Amino acid sequence: SFSMQYYVDPAYGAVWNRIMMPGAVGAPPMDFFVYSGALAFLTGIIYALAYVVMEKSLPGKGMSKWLFFGVLLFLLSGVPSLFGIYLMVNLPPGLLAIWALVDGLILYLLAGALLSHFLS
User: Fold this and answer.
1) Which entry of 55, 59, 71, 77 is 20 to 30 Å from 88 by CA?
2) Burial letters for 43-82: b for 16+ Cβ neighbours within 10 Å, e otherwise?
């Protein structure tokens, strides 16, 4: 993983939620994956509802429409969330950059593609 060195660095051990990292080292427990999956599902429902409401006002057709929606999701949801995390949690900027670009923008573009494909 691009970011694993941050998760095992003892300097940042105290910043992780105990749901994700109950111990100083090791993989997250199964509860974390259940909560994570449930939150991702709920977020997907919210994004799908937003797409249904906004679809007619989105510019373009086909790929350009879903790219626009994915970038819009990233700008409205991803960027503000990361800024909030940066202000409140002692995390290295490198990890936040990975989250923004790899875990953020790419996933938002994929979400936009899937939603526009299945809901259009």
Assistant:
1) 71
2) eeeebeebbeeeeeebeeeeeebbeebbebbbeebbeeeb
